[in-house]
Amino acid sequence: METTLESGAVVTHARRSKRWYQHLYVQVLIAVVIGILMGHFWPGAAEQMKPLGDNFLKLIKLTVAPLIFCTVVHGIAGMKDLRAVGRVGVKALIYFEVMTTIALVIGLLAANLLKPGVGMHVNPATLDVSAIAGYTKVAHDQTIVGYLAHIIPATVFGAFAEGDILQVLFVSILFAFALQLLGDTGEPLLKVIEVGANTFFNMVRIVMYVSPLGAFGAMAYTIGKYGVATLASYGQLLLTYYLCAFVFVFVILAIVCRLAGFSLLRFLRYIKEELLVVLGTSSSESALPRLMQKLERLGCKKSVVGLVVPAGYTFNLDGSCINMTVLAIFIAQATDTELTLWHQITLLLILLLTSKGAASVSGGAFIVLAATLGAVPAIPVAGLVLVLGVYRFISEGGALINVIGNGIATIVVARWEGALDREKLQAALAGHSA
Fold first, then answer.
1. Which GO terms describe its biological process (predicted)?
2. Tens digits of residue pLDDT in 74-114
3. Is 386 exposed, middle or buried (0-12, 13-18, 19+ CB in 10 A)?
């Protein structure tokens, strides 16, 4: 019980800690467990829960585009030194390129060492490719020129209508620079945009109340449709992927965190609610709004958060990079396709480019993988049929790594730029209010 004096009146505040079942992460965890049980024991009914997960993601995506716009515009236009914006962008891109390269190499090495597909002896000619026809058609249209052209939306509002993060980021940066050039004249609009950002954050808070339902629906559908048996039959592949994920997070990212002056485990505990929502929905976008807000609370400057996080969701998909190399080598091994060292280097170089477009289309990493295999004739594209059923379970791990990687990237870039309040960071990660 706390008592304060305001304008001569005594005001009493009752401080009550939340009960365990009132915490969002507990509710989401329970929902995920119930979803798994329902999917296993009542698969038919569980598949009908799909709309719960889909509609929750639609609610989140409803806020993502305007939230990115408001945050990026306010962050950039509010900076007096435009050169600082350029520095942040360049540093972020350097960091993204280094980390995605490491992720790709780890996946490549692990698949070669553990050989998850060896011994399957699948003839690609016998595979029914109708199940992946939609993915390969989109992949065929994904050229480098097409990808670059896709960055520019047909109209300003088109980017928001499509919800394409890369297009929204492009429009936001262009608008921010234009607003900054207005000087003092643009201040009223800048304040309106700040209020808009806070409003959309409040929308996210409201939407998150139904996140347990979304996580339950998505998990029930996944287990009900693909079944636990899928996990057993692809055990070696899943083991290879999640071993890569473990090494990348708890070795590579742990070293990065240590060099940046904070604890990886404390950071994971700090964003545990977001990670559980991502686990339930298999979508890293579901955590984007709250991740941005939490990074600001950690002491990262708003302008850095507004630029690095949205950019990271396009250029720093570490988890997706791991799954693309692991799956590509798995398909080659399963179809008895011999890959020379040059084939694998070519695969790596192509993925360094194509992986940057994984967030620009629906079904991201899978479509990019299809496009990549199309550019490496040695690996049969038909082999994608082999991983279609297990891909959902792998994409969950990829989404988790993407969120963790982009959160850490923002802190690292903020510190590199001198835009990080280290005391606030340590206090927040230690569990104290900053």
1. L-aspartate transmembrane transport
2. 888 877 677 888 899 899 999 999 999 999 999 999 999 99
3. buried
By CB neighbour count within 10 A (0-12 exposed, 13-18 middle, 19+ buried), where does 68 fall?
Answer: buried
Does residue 138 have a pLDDT over 90? no
- Render pLDDT for 205-253 as a digit per residue (tens, 0 to 9): 898 888 889 889 888 888 888 777 766 768 899 999 999 999 999 999 9
The position carrying tokens 């404390």 is 266
Q: What ranges do the domains of the chain cover?
A: 22-430
Cβ-contact 56, 221 below 8 angstroms: no
Closest residue by Cα to residue 363 from 136, 86, 39: 136
The predicted model scores a pTM of: 0.82
Please state, in angstroms and rounded to a whole number, the distance separating the CA atoms of residues 64 and 169: 11
Name beta bridge partners: 300: 420
The pLDDT, as a whole number, for residue 6 is 42
Residue 57 has pLDDT above 60, yes or no: yes
Q: What is the maximum span of the chain, computed from C-alpha positions, in angstroms?
A: 84
- Residue type at 327? L
Q: Which stretches of 248-301 are DSSP H helices?
A: 254-260, 264-270, 272-281, 288-297
Provide φ and ψ at 271, rounded to 5°. -110, 25
The letter for the amino acid at 375 is A
